[in-house]
Amino acid sequence: MAERKVIPKASINEGTGSDLDRKGFLSWLSIGWLAFVGATGGFFTVLIRFLFPNVLFEPPQSFKIGYPDDFTIGKVDTRFKKKHAVWVVRDEEGIYALSTVCTHLGCTPNWLEVEQKYKCPCHGSGFRKSGIHFEGPAPRPLERHAIYLAADGQIIVDKTKSFKWEKGEWEMSDSFLKI
Amino acid sequence: MSYIKSFIDFLSAPTISFTLLTVAFPFIFPPSDYFEKKNRQWGVYKLWTNAGGFWVFVLITLFFIVGYFDPHFNLTMTKPDNIPIILMIYSMYFLTWLGMKKAYANDERLDRGEKPEEWNDPDDKVLVWPDLVYIELIALILFMVALIVWSILIPAPLEEPANPAATPNPSKAPWYFLGLQEMLVYFDPWLAGIVFPMFIIFGMMAIPYMDVNKKGEGYYSFKERRVGYFIFMYGWLVLWVFLIIIGTFFRGPNWNFFGPFEWWDPHKVVPLTNVNLSEYVWVKLLNKGLPVNIIARESVGFVAVIGYLFIMPILLAKTKLKHLYDHYGPVRYATLMLFGLTMFALPIKMYLRWMFNLKYIVAIPEWFFNI
To answer: How far is B122 from chain A (nearest CA, A)?
Structure first.
């Protein structure tokens, strides 16, 4: 004899017209959840896409700066600072390209000819001509960019590669153009 | 006059002004009986009387009047960015004065065995609606009028379009962040820009859980919580407000320091060569090269930092601060020490930089980790 389950009267929804059983509830829940995930996902996809510009008006990352003879020994060339954010330095041995981004918080320092140093106007970090930090809070030297000669004898600076002194990368051949 | 001006320039150098303020601070807000006695003896408490408040107001105003007619200070003072700082100096002084005056009045009442002033039912009590709300409406309108007049009379200091290749010299943060910018001169960005601001916020949230002194709740009082008052006021007035004032008026081109009446010479040369602690120890003291292993190289710095932040509080809990530790329990004691010691790390680092040209205690640029 099968035992009949006794259902309390009050819990039977008679005459309400609702026929949402357990299975129906679950499928509605899944549909609702999927719709929610889809909408949220779509929203964030659009939002993140919005953060990336359609067109970038940026100068090329790799560019020619002229012939080695264009640079005076012992001088810091600031011509490429505005457009390409590099200083080109010529010393007795060769030429190197320093990034103009301060290694403390990313401001652009100024080359002071009289004091022979790069000095950052934000927190007072100072770098020697070679890029080595010596005053203020900057924890490491300025970075150098790859520099080499093109077939036509011009110098090419490649900003996609950078060389960090603290990792010993200034010894690498592309960080420095021997002349 | 020029003597007075060069004397003020000399006094305002951060090494001197910061030291003067720090030394004077316990006499102004005495945290112990000794300082309390000296405060009474030298009449420092008179700062918080009506006459004292008036004379300090006159002094500040005199300074600004003299500054207005000085060709150099006039440039910094009348810059549209800096006008809020002038207002801030006045409002800071007025609010401190008002709070201390009320606190001293209550302290005297408590000494006489009376209840604090706030216990008396005020006789000018009004209803929120309509009385208070009307006052607020009028205040709101007056404030709007003042802001509109201000914005018409002094145009917004707009500059040329942003250009990553051209950083203005000096390059200043908005005035409310100048305290942060000043901290950044002494610390790595992750510390001064992220950890410290978070510690300031969490530390202030933790104050009511650490300072559970029921006295002074709901009324002004200095004597009943003088240590807490001293520590908070030092952090607020010296390590925040004063740093904003330094950043606004005393930092010029190349973030060099200039006295208020000094000309902002963009070629001012300040001989500075900062050295890391590891270089001091290995190169200068032991005459060896820096060890290749990073951890070995920075071991002294790590010992110093861990000793300061963790070992010192444990030793203090067993000796000098045993009473505080027993009263507070381990969790509250550790919280207090963490936030308190981090706060005092700022002046300590400033002095290390000024006195020994010390750049970083732990310096690992390879991992972006410098302290």
So the answer is: 51
ipTM: 0.81
Taking the Cβ of residue A59 and every Cβ of chain B, the question of whether any pair is shorter than 8 Å is answered with no
Q: Please, where are the H alpha helices in B112-177?
A: 133-153
Domain that holds residue B284: 277-370
How many structural domains are present in chain B?
2
Establish if A175 touches chain B: CB-CB under 8 angstroms. no
Q: What string of pLDDT tens digits covers the 371 residues of chain B? A: 888 888 888 888 888 999 999 999 999 999 999 999 999 999 999 999 999 999 999 999 999 999 999 999 998 888 888 898 999 999 999 999 999 999 999 999 999 998 888 888 777 788 898 889 999 999 999 999 999 999 999 888 888 888 777 788 888 888 889 999 999 999 988 899 899 999 999 999 999 888 888 888 889 999 988 998 999 999 999 999 999 999 999 998 888 888 888 888 887 877 778 888 888 888 888 888 888 888 888 889 999 999 999 999 999 999 988 998 998 899 999 999 999 999 999 999 999 998 888 889 998 888 888 88
Closest chain B residue to the Cα of A118, Cα to Cα: B254
- Of A163, A157, A151, whose CA–CA distance to A103 is shortest? A163
State whether residue B126 sits within 8 Å of chain A by CB.
no
B80 touches chain A (CB under 8 A): no
Last residue of a domain, one of A14, A31, A57: A57
CA distance B292 to B175: 43
- Whether residues A157 and A82 fall in one domain: yes
A150 within domain boundaries: yes
Q: Are A139 and B370 inside 8 Å of each other by CB?
A: yes
Q: Does A99 touch chain B (CB under 8 A)?
A: no
Within a 13 Å sphere around the CA of B98, how many CA atoms are in the beta-carbon half? 6
CA distances from B179 to A100, B42, B122, B157, B340 (A): 26, 32, 39, 20, 18
Query: Between B167, B359, B366, which is nearest A122 by CB?
Result: B167
Examine the domain organization and report whether A68 and A49 are in the same domain: no
d(CA B91, CA B363): 40
User: Domain span at residue A153?
Assistant: 62-178
In chain A, the residue whose alpha carbon lies closest to the alpha carbon of B255 is A124
